[in-house]
């Protein structure tokens, strides 16, 4: 019989994943505010700024599938420790960037370092938590991102004015190194887990092939790409938009940006609880409707008459997107066997990171092409929200549930 201590260790695991993803998200989100100072110091154009913001996601996207496969093959613990150490080093190096090209290279390597954390964490959740608790566990871990969405704008904008963007990167990287030590001592694999026991290396490639054969996984890939195109488009460019198009000062940008992020905290936690209660199929139809509403409120954001209504509309968008994000990324944890969860979520999350690569660059090019206007950029985000809705509607009417147990045994 499994000891009570072993049963309850899942709570230690999810807290560790929450804390690690918090510092990871701070490192990523702070860049969206640091770029205001970086662009000024390094004299970057809007197009160059977009490329810098996208360079992280290029490396991050490339590591999603390999990171998931490594977690399936060797266990999530080792991969997470390596990921946190690597991204912490490159966070420190971000503060040392001296040119446009050096910044692109460092941020790309930063993305490679951080890329395996999420699929490995998904593997850890599937390993430690029963199926009917996995959406809640995932939503709790991802809530760290929304909490950092509240904290980062305020701390980031204030600290940039006092100690500068370079020092913040140094401090965040040092905190990450401390987390590495924490993980070495307290992050554990569950006894009896099936990870890391594949004796035939050739057989270990099978999960990705089986994942790619499943239409539902492709629908989730497209939906996640689309909703994260909206997410990262807003997050990467919103500080610059508020300064340039809405004429706010840096301090005001910090507080305004925190409002929708605070709404996202509640939405993330609530979404995980609701999704664990909803019947299979209906959850995806509801998410598709929410994606359509996301498009509607993006339109209202673009033409908001004042900053107060803008913040309200963005908060509503954040709530709808939070539900979709939790549904998409927790669906494989419920549909698939533990042996392929890391690979499947790594593949699906690759879609989100491709969106992170493309969207900031596209917005930068559009802003330059239309003489500083952001209207076309908002139209592009609206189209992405509708793409997400279409992909989720298709899933809602599919009855088959993929099973990988026979294929990987």
Describe the structure.
With 409 residues, this protein is mainly α. It has one domain: MFS general substrate transporter like domains (Growth Hormone, Chain: A, Up-down Bundle). Helices cover 82% and strands 0% of the residues. The protein has 16 helices and no strands. Helix 2 packs antiparallel against helix 14 and helix 7 packs antiparallel against helix 11. The longest helix is centred in the N-terminal third of the chain and has 39 residues. The protein starts with a helix and ends with a helix. The C terminus is likely disordered.
Which key phrases capture this entry?
disordered C terminus, globular, 409 residues, Growth Hormone, Chain: A, 82% helix, mainly alpha
| The CATH topology | Growth Hormone, Chain: A
Structural domains: how many: 1
Structural class category: mainly alpha
CATH architecture, by name, is Up-down Bundle
For CATH, the homologous superfamily is named as MFS general substrate transporter like domains
What does the oligomeric state look like here?
single chain
Text of the CATH class = Mainly Alpha
Strand content: under 5%
Query: H/E series, N to C?
Result: HHHHHHHHHHHHHHHH
User: What is the end-to-end distance?
Assistant: 25 Å
Helical segment count: 16
Helix content: over 70%
- Return Rg in Å: 20 Å
Could you report the average pLDDT, rounded to the nearest whole number?
Answer: 83
Q: pLDDT below 50 for ≥5 consecutive residues: which ranges?
A: 195-205, 404-409
In one word, what is the shape? globular
In total, the number of strands is 0
> How would a crystallographer describe the biggest sheet?
none
Protein name: MFS transporter
Keywords: Cell membrane, Membrane, Transmembrane, Transmembrane helix, Transport
Pfam family, one: MFS_1
Membrane topology: Multi-pass membrane protein
């Amino acid at each position: 019989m499994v000891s009570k201590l072993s049963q309850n260790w899942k709570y230690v695991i999810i807290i560790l994943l929450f804390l690690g993803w918090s510092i990871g998200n701070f490192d990523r989100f702070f860049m969206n505010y640091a770029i205001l100072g970086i662009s000024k110091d390094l004299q970057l154009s809007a197009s160059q700024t977009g490329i810098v913001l996208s360079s992280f996601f290029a490396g991050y996207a490339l590591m999603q599938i390999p990171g998931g496969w490594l977690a399936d093959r060797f266990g999530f613990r080792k991969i997470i420790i390596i990921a946190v150490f690597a991204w912490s080093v490159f966070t420190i190096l971000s503060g040392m960037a001296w040119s446009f090209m050096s910044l692109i290279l460092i941020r790309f390597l930063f993305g490679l370092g951080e890329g395996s954390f999420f699929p490995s964490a998904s593997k850890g959740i599937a390993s430690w938590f029963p199926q009917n608790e996995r959406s809640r566990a995932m939503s709790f871990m991802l809530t760290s991102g929304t909490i950092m969405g509240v904290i980062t704008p305020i701390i980031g904008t204030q600290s940039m004015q006092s100690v500068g963007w370079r020092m913040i990167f140094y401090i965040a990287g040092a905190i990450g190194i401390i987390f590495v030590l924490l993980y070495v001592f307290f992050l554990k694999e569950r006894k009896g887990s099936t990870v890391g026991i594949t004796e035939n290396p050739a057989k270990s490639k099978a999960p990705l092939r089986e994942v790619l054969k499943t239409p539902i996984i492709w629908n989730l890939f497209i939906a996640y790409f689309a909703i994260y195109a909206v997410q990262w488009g807003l997050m990467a460019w919103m500080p610059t938009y508020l300064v340039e198009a809405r004429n706010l000062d840096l301090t005001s940008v910090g507080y305004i940006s925190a409002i929708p992020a605070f709404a996202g905290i509640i939405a993330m936690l609530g979404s995980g609880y609701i999704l664990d209660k909803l019947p299979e199929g209906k959850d995806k139809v509801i998410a598709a409707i929410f994606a359509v509403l996301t498009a509607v409120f993006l339109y209202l954001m673009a033409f908001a008459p004042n900053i107060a209504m803008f913040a309200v509309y963005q908060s509503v968008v954040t709530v709808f997107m939070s539900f979709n994000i939790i549904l998409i990324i927790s669906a494989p944890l419920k549909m698939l066997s533990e042996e392929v969860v890391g690979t499947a979520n790594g593949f699906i999350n690759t879609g989100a990171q491709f969106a992170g690569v493309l969207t900031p660059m596209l917005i930068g090019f559009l802003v330059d092409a239309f003489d500083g206007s952001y209207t076309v950029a908002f139209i592009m985000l609206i189209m992405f929200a509708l793409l997400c809705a279409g992909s989720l509607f298709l899933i809602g009417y599919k009855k088959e549930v993929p099973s990988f147990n026979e294929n990987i045994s």
